[in-house]
Amino acid sequence: MIEENKDLSPLTTFHIPAKARFYAEYTSEKELLRISRDPVFIENEVLHIGGGSNLLFCTDYDGLVLHSAVKGMKAYQKDATTHYAIVGAGEKWSDFVEWTIDQGLGGLENLAGIPGEAGASAVQNVGAYGVEAGDCIHTVECFDCQTRTTRTFTKEECRFGYRDSFFKHEGKGRYIVLRVAFKLQKESIARTLTYGPLKEWAASLDHSPSLRETADKIKEIRNTKLPDPDVLGSAGSFFKNPVVRGRFHYELEQLSGCKIPAIPLGEPDETGHYKMVKIPAAWLIDKAGLKGRRIGGARVYPDQPLVIVNEGNATSRDVIELAETVRKEVKKKFFIDLIPEVNYIDTDIRVTVLGSGTSKGVPEIGCSCEVCTSPFEKDKRLRASILVETHGLRLLIDASPDLRMQALTHGIDQLDAVLLTHVHYDHVGGIDDLRPYCAYGSLPIYLREDVAKALRQRLDYCFRDQLYPGVPALDLRIIGNHPFYIKGLKIEPIEVLHGQMPIYGYRIGKFAYITDAKSISETEKEKLEGLDTLIVNALRERNHFAHFTIREALNLIEELKPRRAYLTHFNHEAGRHHELLKRLPSNVEPCYDGLKITIK
């Protein structure tokens, strides 16, 4: 049932070569249950794919790829006008939409011709021409990978948003969609005809268009704009349409000197500005002069610049570099950051050490020791924080008071979330500098309850009912000492004692980051078994009541036995970088600001 070294290129619409170490397809809950008990499932990272229409494999996948072959479509009637249609997750979405039209069930006709499988409709909340799948979804039946039981989610529990759902956040990696139930209407006339060219077409008719006419027209429009993925590989729309604050949209027009089209969302405020507006990404890319832009075998599709195509020999690196070029050019012209709708599947973990110093930094103000006066860059240390990039995510661990300079130095123009270890100022003093990352909505901050309480007091202006325009929009998400997920990425807190104060380090895959620790319990050490790379604090040689000394950090490394380790959070007493390096074991190095580490 489980295959090895599976070629994934036929299973994705980009058709870019990549292999999965393990692959399994299932046709029922019973088969999925059996797979979930297999050691391959238990011991490896697991990725579930549908029709592969929103995936870009950046490298071979060192884990288990699952694919649903759960089939079936059936309908039943509730009353004279309300019907329910249930579809297996492995059915083609386009086939299901056609089937509902054949059954005389209205609601999904605007979603005709969209590639992918039915299960993805609930995960991605697919949408087109003024309709989203979530508008019609009634319930979603899922397999819970933790409890190995089946659970049904209501529409409200799915938390549908623009190209978003619960299953892309907390539910990702845990719940696998088995079936989706839609609440539809028994009717022959299409209802939603107010979107762009569809509105013009409907107005030109001498009758109200039927479900079939509407679906056929939508497919015709799509075919004129979008390439056939069997001819030119693509993932459809590569970028989301940016949703920004209405006031920010006004500012963008002033800054760029352009009239930027926007679709209002919700009702205007007392000043006439809409709280949020949606901006067409295709218009931004077009006006930035990027139609037809090529890198290697990847190209911005001339007929629809929202699409990046594989002209036959593109690599994942070609696509990523082209996507980053599009983002940079659009941001340069319009000051808007485009967010990919495509999921980058990348199990590598890339760590950038933004700061490796303690609370005073190095050099310390007023100190003339040989370390503080050293001319070498590796002896200059900002306050401790790191950037972690993996699975298409950018995560900041701690917002030090030096965050502004760290972000400018390393070109950090986008963050998906921030993880805080504790509330001491040298780890949270840069939170106000997170403002630029909040222009498109609240930035998630994962933190302990005690840290959240302190921040609400310290940064009360960020949490008032009436917020001053421009303050950082922070979404504080309380975590306990158990694993949590960010868009499917598993993160495990490691509780350590900073003197007598409990704080968190974090483990992501085979990488762990621990700062400000003085001791770790045996239970927490068990969470650190099997590491490839560990970064741990080591203040100095001399004893300290709240921090590991260099010797204590080396003792922990010897006990845990990671493949390699790095020391961080130094003060000037630790000595100059090149001298400290000579004193350390061969598998241990001192961190320095700007150090980049890749964990495969």
Features:
single chain; 600 residues; alpha/beta; Uridine Diphospho-n-acetylenolpyruvylglucosamine Reductase, domain 2; Uridine Diphospho-n-acetylenolpyruvylglucosamine Reductase, domain 3; 17 helices; 30% strand; globular
The average pLDDT score comes to 93
Question: In CATH, what is the class of the largest domain?
Answer: Alpha Beta
Show unreliable segments.
none
| CATH-scheme architecture of the largest domain | 4-Layer Sandwich
Total tally of structural domains? 4
Task: Please outline what is shown here.
With 600 residues, this protein is an alpha/beta fold. The protein contains 17 helices and 35 strands.
Task: Write a structural description.
The radius of gyration is 26 Å and the shape is globular. It has a 7-stranded mixed β-sheet. A 7-stranded mixed β-sheet has the order 28-29-30-31-32-33-34. It has 600 residues and is of the alpha/beta class. A hairpin with a 2-residue loop joins strand 9 and strand 10 (131-132). The protein folds into 4 domains: 2-68, Uridine Diphospho-n-acetylenolpyruvylglucosamine Reductase, domain 2 (2-Layer Sandwich); 73-225, 2-Layer Sandwich (Uridine Diphospho-n-acetylenolpyruvylglucosamine Reductase, domain 3), CATH 3.30.465; 233-345, Uridine Diphospho-n-acetylenolpyruvylglucosamine Reductase, domain 1; 349-599, Metallo-beta-lactamase, Chain A.
